[in-house]
Amino acid sequence: MSPSMAGLAVLVTILVLLAVGTPIAFTLGFVAVGALILSEGWFAIYGVSETFFAGLANFGMVSVPMFILMGAAVASSPAGKDLYEALDRWLYRVPGGMVMSNIGACALFAALSGSSPATCAAIGKMGIPEMTRRGYPDSLAAGSIAAGGTLGILIPPSVTMIVYGISTETSIGRLFLAGLVPGLMLTGLFMIWALFDCWRRGIGLSNVTRHFSLAERLEKLPKVLPFLIIVALILFVLYGGVATPSEAAGTGALICLVLVAVIYRMWRAGPMVNVFRDTIREAVMIMLILGAAELFAFALSSLFITQTVADAIAGLEVNRWVLLLVINLFLLVAGCFLPPVAIILMTAPILMPILDSAGFDPYWFAVILTINMEIGLITPPVGLNLYVINGIAPQISLRDILMGSLPFVGMMILGMLLLSLFPQIALFLPDLIMGAAI
């Protein structure tokens, strides 16, 4: 069988297995083992376990469960509620300030948890009922939370960026820096749209029902600031070369556990057991996908599928920006069906040689890829954030949630266009702090 026919067979098999609900890790592993047996015979079975565990034999992988533990500790506490209330007390007099408060709270909570669904759930539980009570349209209330929640995979520390760094052998600290300014830029674009939308709908100061004194505005800050300081310190030790990502993640997770126990009095075993249970569940899922993806990449390479696809795309006589457009369209479609971690691990072996030959910076592309994944989180048919919002606000239809999210998808596309025109938006901070990439 030719590499092109083998690639088509692999693609069809993956789509069929995913369509019937097979977990991603098992899908990748089954296809990889089947492809190796068909190409090399049953003798290939002896190398499967070694290749699988080679995908996990990276010390940097320790940071993944540690950052997940840090996020789980924060997500299980009332920190999201306090973040939301603190911002609302400062922005309540701004037209559309309630929406802006929710978007800002999503951005801050995303930095703490690194999880888009957790951000949607934590902020949406308080924000959506309050916005609808104050007269905000259901679509705007739900769409702003769904879009704000996507920031969890871009604003550092981001598990998605860690997986990208491990799979492409790029610096995790530089990736975090590359995602910081674009994450803040997207937050600003979301807020600008929210302000404009509220202005055109006539939502102004008429819905302000109470006023907050300076003391009331400062009341929530002592509970919120320690968590934000932890994130800032983690970024500092990473960029300053003081600690490795694994060391920074482990220390941050321990401190966050202590903080939620002290600030929110989560001393009992029950809440802590739930934190570790959620951490183990998500970390094991990611680890299984990582190992299976390594096996899958090895199978693609053994069948010369990766090399054939890379040569075919690189051989296209098109402008490199047309090539990037094709890649982005592919990622947008894939993001509608698969989680970000799976897409990164499945496509990195194929895309990185192509991007390198086209002269695109891998750190800049990491941001472009992540924004694509963000769009996938709020677009059907699998848009995870849409279903999370529908779960916490069942009175709002999926159609209203989707319609409210679409303008924010436009803001993400605008963000990608700005990054394409001005790559230094993502690259100037890493180059300034860590020096130019070699």
UniProtKB/TrEMBL annotation:
MF terms in GO: transmembrane transporter activity
Keywords from the UniProt entry: Cell inner membrane, Cell membrane, Membrane, Transmembrane, Transmembrane helix, Transport
Subcellular location field: Cell inner membrane
Keyword Kinase among record annotations: no
InterPro entries attached to this UniProt entry: DctM (IPR010656), TRAP_DctM (IPR004681)
Predominant place of localization: membrane
Domain TRAP C4-dicarboxylate transport system permease DctM subunit: 11-425
A GO cellular component entry from the record: plasma membrane
Membrane topology: Multi-pass membrane protein
Entries under Pfam families matching the protein: DctM
This protein's record includes keyword Kinase: no
TM annotation in the entry: 56-79, 99-124, 145-166, 172-196, 224-242, 248-267, 288-309, 321-351, 363-388, 408-429
Family: Belongs to the TRAP transporter large permease family.
Entry-linked PANTHER family: C4-DICARBOXYLATE TRAP TRANSPORTER LARGE PERMEASE PROTEIN DCTM, SIALIC ACID TRAP TRANSPORTER PERMEASE PROTEIN SIAT-RELATED
Subunit description: The complex comprises the extracytoplasmic solute receptor protein and the two transmembrane proteins.
Function comment: Part of the tripartite ATP-independent periplasmic (TRAP) transport system.
Name the record gives this protein: TRAP transporter large permease protein
